[in-house]
Amino acid sequence: MKAFQTFGRAQVRSYLHRAQRSRRKESMAITRAFCLSYSMPLKRAFSTSRGQTTTSNNYLVVVHGRAADGTLHVGCGEGQPRKTLTGDAPRDSWRFLTETCDALVGQALDLDDPSKAVDSVRQVMKPIRAAAQRQVKEHRTRPFRGTLLGIEVALLDLAARGCGRTVAQLLGQQRDTVPVSASTIQTRYPIDRLGTKIAQQMERWPVTRLKGSGEVDLDLERLRVAHRVNSSQGRDKLAWLDANEGMTNEQAHDFIERLARGMKSEEMPARVVIEQPVPRRHHRFLCELQGLADTLLAGTSARDLRIMPDESLWDEKDLQTLSRYGGCRAINIKPPKCGGLLPALDLARAALADNPDTLVYLGGMLGTSDLTTWTLANLGCSLPRLDLMTTMPPGNVAKRIATPLSSYAEDLVHLQPQEEPGIGSRLVLQDVMPYVRQAHWAPAPTADQSRKGRTPNSYRVDHLSAFGKIGLDSHLLELEALVRGLHTTRFTDRDFVAYDDGGRVAPFQWTKTLLNGRPAAAITGDKQSTKYLLENSGVPIPSGHSFKSGQNQEALDYGRRLGFPLVVKPREGTAGIGVVTDIADEGQLNWAIGQIASSKYAGGEFIVEKHLDESAYRMFVLDDRVLSAVRYEHGSVIGDGISCVAELIIQRNQLRRRNPHLMGRLIRSGESTTEALRKQDLGYDSVPAEGVEVLLTLNPNFAQGGDSVELVEEFHPTLLDAAVAGVAAIPGLRFAGVDFLVADHTAPLEAQAAGICEINAHPAQTSGEFPLYGKRTGVSSALVDRCVEHHGLQVLSPGDRPQQLAVDVVVRGLVQDVGYRKWMARRCKATNVVGWVGNGPDNEVHAHLAGAAPSVAAVVSAAIAGSRQARPLSVSTHQATARTTQRFEIR
Amino acid sequence: MTQENVPPKTVDRPARRKVADLSGQARESVDLHAAAMSLGLDTTRLQRNVILCGKQDDMGLLAFKGTSSLTSSIATDALLQDPILARQLLESLGLPLCQGVVLTAAHVKKLSTLVDSLRFPLLVEHGGGTSRQPEGLVANDASELHVQVEGYFSRSKGRYSRLIVTEAPLSERNLVLVVGDRVVAWCSKEGAGERWSGRRLAELKEWTASTALAAVAAVPGLAYGGVEFLYPSGDEDPRIRRVLNGPRLQPFAQGNNASVYREVVAFHAELSGLAISAERNDVAVQARLPGARDSAGLDALTRRIAEQLQISMSSVEATPERFSCQLSGNVLSLSMFTAGLMGGGEATEPVVAVELLHLG
Q: Quick count: other Cβ atoms within 10 Å of Cβ A564?
C-alpha cells in the first residue's frame, strides 16, 4: 500500500476508470501485463567520455489485450532506463514500472480507428506520465522517461495489432523506409588510422559521424581528416561530431571559431553538425554557439554549420527554452529522453513549426534489442522530417531476443519496417530468460513453487550477488572465521589465511584446507584409484573397469558382459566433461567412448561401469560425520493455466536468483531444456494446464536447472556409515564431497542397489549451505571449526560468537585514485554497514566496518576485487571494537 | 666388449639405469618407494606417483604423492606452489625474504619507480604455480624487465594476473631440507641455471639452519619441506627465496651419504604410528595386482619386466579377478617393477594397483 502512495497508483487507476466509462464499442481490454528487467552483456565494451559500458540494462513491458471478438493480442515495448540520461534511478523506476503494470490491468483501448487508438493510448499514458512527473523533486532530471517509453510502446504495439495496422500507420506514416545515415567512428581510432576507417565507410554511409575526444585540436584534426578523405573521393559528405558534453564554454567557442575559419578556407567539410559540445545545462550557450557559427559563415551559402542539442533537448519544454535564446538549427530526438514515441513526434512537429529548416535526427540508446530497432524504424517513418538516423540492427549484444530480426533492405542502408501489425517484431521469451534479473506480473502469478509438500527456501542474497561460484565458497569460510574472532588476510577471491592473536595460521584456498593431505587429492582425482580403495574397504561402488585409449573393442566386450545400462567417463576427468550416463546399447557405448577421444581427455584412460538408475546425492563428510546430503532433482515448473512455459521458467529463475547456490545456475533455453520439453510435446510458448508439472532437465544437474533438496536427517544410518567409510578409505582425506547413488535414502544399504560413484577432495559447499528445499546445514561452519581445532587456533566459544562484527581493514595494492573508496562506500551503504573508509599511508586504503556479520564479511571478502580499476593485492582484516556511528562516510 | 655388454656388478644396476631415465616426480617416487620397502613397510603403488604404505592389508596409514606426504595439506601446497601467494604468506609470517615487489597490470607505468630499490639481475615469476615456470625469467637490466613485464600483462589480462619481481643475485644459493624438527641435508648451486649439488651437513651455517627450521615450522600444514636461500651480497645474511612442499630429494641424496628418502619415510612412519624395521636392500615380497582381467597378458608383462630388472619371480597365480606372484630382489628393482607395470604395454589392460607385501 505504501508503494501505491509513492507513485500515485490510486490516482492513476481512478483516472483510468473514469476514462473507461466512455468506452467505445470497438475496444480492447487489457487482461494481463508483465515487465522484465534484463541485463544483456555487450560483445565489445563501449567507451564514451562518460566511461565504459559492458552490459546493457533494459526493461521489457508486455501487455495482453482481449478484443471485443475475443481475439487475444500481445503488445511489447522495450524501456531503456539510462540513469541520468533518461531520469531513471534503477530501483525507483523498476518500482514505478511494476505499479504501472498493476494499474494497466483492466484498462481499455479504443480501436475504432487509428487516430482514436492513438488518442486512447495518450489517455492511458496521461495519468502515468503525471505520476512520473510527481517524482521530479526526488530526481534531478525528468523522471522515468526511459521506463515510460517501454510502457507507451507496449500500448501502441497492442493498439496497432488490435487495429491490424503497423505502429507507423497508427502514427501517421510519412515514408515507407528510413535511411541509416552513419556508423559512428569511435575515439579509439587514432589520427593515422582514422583515414582508413573513413575510407571504409565511403560507399555505404552518406554521413561521417565521429565521436568527440573533448580535445579541441584533436577534434578539429579529426574533422580535417574526414574532409580530406571524403573530398579526395569527390564526396561532399556531411561531417558530424558527437562531442558528448566534452568541452567547456571557452573551448567550444574557440572550437567553433576555428572550425568556421577552416570551413571558409575549405580545409574543413562544407557541412558540419556539432552535437552537444558543452554540458547539458548550458541551453543559452548552445544557442549562442549557433549564432556565432551563423555569423562567421554569413554570406557563404555553401557552408553550413549546425549545433545539435542532445542532452540539453529532452522534450518540447526544452525546445521552448532553446527557442527563447534563439534556438539551434538541428534537433536530436531520442524517445527514451522524450518518454515515448508520441512525445517524440510532438517534439519534431513543434521544432519544425518553429523553423521548417531544422535538421531532424532520430537516435536511440546503446545496447537495445531488435524490438527498439523496429520501434524506431516505425517512428522514423512517421516523423514529418527525417534527416539523420543512426539506429541499426543490434550487432553488439550477446543475444538477439526478438523475431523477426531487424535488418537492412537490399541497399544495406535503409531499414524497412515489417508489414505485419504492431511494431513488426515480437519478443522471444526463451531467448531473454537467462538475462532476466527482475520480473513482475499483474495479476500476480499463482504457479506452485513447492515440490512434494516442501516449500522453497528463500535466502538473503543482496550482499552475495557480487561473488562468483568460487568466490562465494571462499567467502562463506571467511565469514565463519571472522565470527569466531579470527583475523584474516585475503590474497585473491579464493585464497585467504585466518589467524588468531597468537599468530597461529590456517590457510584456505577455495575449499582446500589443512585437513586434507595432498596425496588424497591426487587419489580422488583418479576415479579408478578411488574405486580400488573404496572396494578394498567394503564400500559399495558400481562395477566397472578402466581401459586405455584405443582399447575400444575390449571396452565394448566388457560392457556387453557387464550389461546395460552403462556409464562411460574419463579416468581423470572433472566437471562432468566426457561423462555419458544411461548408455542403453552398444551403439551408444561406442559413441560415448568416441566422444572422449574428441574431448580434452583424448588419449587418456576411460572407465566403463554399471549405470545405477538411482537418485544422486552429494554428501558432505567431515571425519566421522555426514554434514549434509543434498539430492539432485530434475528441474521443473508447474502450470497455472495462464502462463506459458517460458514465463513459468522466468518465475522459477526468480526463485533461483534468491538462492546463493543457484543464482548463477539459472534455467536456460539450451539443448537439454528444449529436448526435455520436446519429449513432453511442449515448447516454450505452450501453456500448461493448472497443476501440471513440466520437466525441464534431462539430467538432475544443478547447472542445467536441477533443484537441490537437503535430506540428511532422513538418511538411514547404514548409508551415512557407508559415506563416512568411503572418505576414510582414502588416506589423508578428512573432508570430502561424496556422490552417492541411492534408491531409497530411508532404507538400509543392504536392502537396495546403491554405490558411491565419485569422491571430491575439495567440493564446493554451497549446495549444502543453500538447498532449495529442506533444512539448511552448516557445512562451512563445521569445516572451519575442525580446521581451527586441527591447528590449535584460539577462537570464541559458540556462545560468544557475535551477530554483529566490527573490523579494521587495510587494503594494499593499487587502490588509491581508482574509485576504491567510493566503491566500498557504495557497497557498505547498500548492505547497511556503517563506519568509514579513507586513504592511508604507503598507498593503502584503511577502513573501519561495523554491522551485521554476514554483511561486513561480504564487504571484506569482496574488497579483494574492489572497483573496476583497482588492483588490490591483499585485504587484511582485524577484529576491532565498534565505534559509535550511524552511517558510512568517506574520509 | 661394449658398455652395454658389461654384466651388472650389483643387482640394482639395471634398475638404477632405468630410474635415471625417469623424470621429476616419477623418479622421486621410485626412490621413495624403495626406501619404504627397505624399512619393512608393505606398499601399494596406485599411480605412477602415488605410494601407499602400511602393514599387510591396511595400506591407508601413510601416503606419498611424489615426495609430498599426506601430512602436507592441499591448502598449503596450493599456496606454496604460487610464488606470489607464497611470498605473501611467508611475509605475513615474518620470515626474512629476499627483496621483491608484486606487480599488477596497473603498475606497469610505474615500473621503474617500483623496482628502483631492487638490484639486478631480477627474477620475474607469475602467479599460478612454479611447476609451469620453475625458475622464472631473469631480467638483467631495466629494458629486459620492461619487455618481460609488459609482455606478460599484454597476454594476461585477468583480474588476478600478477607478477612478482625479486632480486636474484648470481651468487650462491642454498636449499635446506627440513624433516620435522631436524635439518636433514642441504645442497647448493652457484646460479639459477646451475644444478644443485649436495653438501656436507657440517658445512651449513647455524643461522641458515635455524632459519630453515623456523620457516618450515611457521608454515601451517608443512611437516617437512625445503627452504631455498639467496645471498644478496657477501656481507648480508642469506634471504629466503621460497619454501617448497615436498621438494625433490635427488639433489640432497647425491651429496649426502645418508639416505634422505629413508629419513623422510621413517619420519612419516613414526608420525603415522607405523613400526619400521632394520634397513634391508634385498627383500622377498608377494606381489598382487587386484582387479586384473587379462591374466595371460599380465603374466607375460610381469615376466618381461622382472627379467629386465633381474628380479626372481615364482608362484605365479593368475585368475580372472586376481594376479599374484612372489618376487625377490633389490628394493629399487622392485620399485621400478611396480612403476613399469603402471606404464604397462599398449596391448595390456591398465594396472590399477600393485601391492607388495613382505614375506616372512
A: 15
Give percent of chain A above pLDDT 90.
Answer: 57
pLDDT band, residue A137 (cuts 50/70/90): low
| pLDDT reading at A23 higher than 50 | no
Q: Tell me, yes or no, if A235 is annotated catalytic.
A: no
Catalytic, A839? Answer yes
Q: Which three cell numbers stand for residue B155?
A: 597476454
Q: Which of B73, B81, B92, B164 has the highest number of chain A CBs within 10 A, making it the mutation to test binding with A?
A: B73
Mean pLDDT of chain A: 89
Bond before A404 cis per omega within 30 degrees = yes
What average pLDDT score do residues A182-187 get? 87
Q: pLDDT, tens digit, for every residue of A582-601?
A: 788 888 888 888 887 777 77
- Residues 6 or more apart whose Cβ sits within 8 Å of residue A453: none
Distance, in angstroms, between B48 CA and closest chain A CA? 11
Contacts of B350 (CB under 8 A, 6+ apart): A528, A546, A547, A548, A571, A605, B344
Distances in Å between the Cα of A650 and the Cα atoms of A104, A525, A792 are 21, 37, 48
Rounded mean pLDDT of B321-328?
86
| Beta carbons of A730 and B72 less than 8 Å apart | no
Q: Report CA dihedral (B191, B197, B202, B205) to the nearest 10 degrees.
A: 20
| DSSP-H helix ranges across A831-881 | 853-862
Query: Is B69 in Cβ contact with A791 (below 8 Å)?
Result: no
Of A605, A598, A629, whose CA–CA distance to A616 is shortest? Answer: A629
Q: Is the peptide bond before A565 cis (omega within 30 degrees of 0)?
A: yes
Non-local CB neighbours of A626 within 8 Å, separated by 6+ positions = A619, A620, A712, A715, A720, A723, A724
Interface test with A, best of B61, B74, B103 (most A CBs within 10 A): B74
CA dihedral sign, ordered A882, A883, A885, A891: negative
**Residue B106 DSSP class:** G
Cell numbers describing residue A237: 559528405
Which amino acid, residue A248? T
* pLDDT greater than 70 at residue A8: no
Among the listed residues A821, A868, A871, A883, the single catalytic one is A821
Under the banding of pLDDT at 50, 70 and 90, the label for residue A439 is very high
d(CA B336, CA B343): 11
CA torsion, points A846, A850, A856, A857, in degrees to nearest 10?
80
Joined grid coordinates for residue A136: 521530479
Separation of alpha carbons A48 and A274, rounded Å = 16
Q: Grid coordinates standing for A431? A: 531467448
- Strand pairing partners for B253? none
B-chain residues within 8 Å CB-CB of A531? 352
pTM of the model: 0.82
Separation of alpha carbons B288 and B291, rounded Å: 10
Taking alpha carbons only, the member of A124, A121, A119, A57 closest to residue A85 is A57
Bridge-based pairing state of the strands A615-622 and A544-547: unpaired
* ipTM value for the complex: 0.85
Tell me how far apart the alpha carbons of residues A543 and A480 are, in angstroms, rounded to a whole number: 40
CB < 8 Å to A762, chain B: 74
* Enclosing H/E stretch for A293: helix A283-296
Cα A22 to Cα A27, A29, A69, A107, A109: the distances in Å are 11, 13, 19, 12, 11
Percentage of chain B exceeding pLDDT 90: 12
Residue with cell 512517421: A382
Element (H, E) at B244: strand B239-245
Q: What is the DSSP string of A220-236?
A: HHHHHHHHHHHHHTT--
Contacts of A545 in chain B (CB under 8 A): 291, 293, 349
**For residue range A227-274, what is the model confidence (pLDDT) as tens digits?**
999 999 998 899 999 998 989 999 999 999 999 999 999 999 999 999
